[in-house]
Structure formats: C-alpha cells, structure tokens
Amino acid sequence: MEQKYFLRRKQVEPCRSGWKKFMKSCYFNPTYTAGWATARRKCQKLSSDLVVITSAEEQKFLTSNYRSNNWIGLTDEAKEDVWLWIDGTLHRNSSGFWCKDEPNNTSNNNSNGENCAAIWALPPCQSEWKDENCFRSLNFICEKQTSCSCL
Ligand SMILES: [Ca+2]
Ligand SMILES: [Ca+2]
What we know:
This protein has about 150 residues and is an alpha+beta fold. Helices cover about 20% and strands about 25% of the residues. The chain has helices spanning about 1-10, 35-45, 55-65; strands at about 20, 25-30, 50, 70-75, 85, 90, 115-120, 130, 140, 140-145. A hairpin with a 7-residue loop joins strand 4 (about 70-75) and strand 5. The radius of gyration is 16 Å and the shape is globular. Bound molecules: calcium ion (CA) (2 copies). One calcium ion binds near residues 102, 106, 114, 130 and 131.
C-alpha cells in the first residue's frame, strides 16, 4: 500500500526540488555563472548535462522560465562553424533560434573566436542564440531526461 502510494507520487513529481519539468525532461538553472566547460561539468555532477534544444516548444519553455544569459549544450569548438550538440547531434545553422547575424565567431576579445552557444537575455538578441567566447562566465541550463511518461 505504502509502496504504491510512493510510486504514484514519484510519477507526479519526477523532478528533484528546484528543477522544472517540461515534456520528458527536468531542467535546472544554477544561480552562479561559469565558463562553458565548467558549466557542463557542473551539470554532469548533477547527473545531467547542458540543455539540448530540440523543438520550438522547448526553446519557448526555456526563455519564458529562465531570464539570464544561459549557456546551452551547443559548440563549434571541434571544427569552426560545425555546430554540434553535446549529445553528438549535428545542428544545421539555418535551423534553431540564432539572433540576427549570429553565429558570427567574433574575435574582438579572443583570437579563438566564439565557439559556444548561449540563449541571450538582452536586446537585440533577447531570447535568441548567440555564439560567445567559451571562457565567458554565464549562467547555464542543465537538462536531465526522465524515463517518466507522465504529463
Ligand atoms: Ca566559432
Ligand atoms: Ca557571436
């Protein structure tokens, strides 16, 4: 009896405290900032990884819930202008939610250009993506997939 109750309860609240549920994932937006690689390690320590955005709905969920400049799990560090999600998926630059004229690989402050993607919070790129210097300290969003099929 008690076990049954626990299972049901677990299905209704599949995300840990402080994490937000959307579709089949839980999301977390730590309050501190870090460079992209450190941010990724922080997510991994929480049994998650930087967010991989696969739909317009997910993008909208993220931008309406998290309103800072946030690293996402997208990088062209391995090969310039070949953007890969951290799960290995190839991202087509024509898709996604890039801000106008982004990614532009600006090398103003860094000879390596810009190889990590972030959802930006400030105009003129509000709620859209920019490539940024990976060492810049930004907020970030972790995503953990759940096996839960509940709503
Ligand atoms: Ca780049
Ligand atoms: Ca840029």
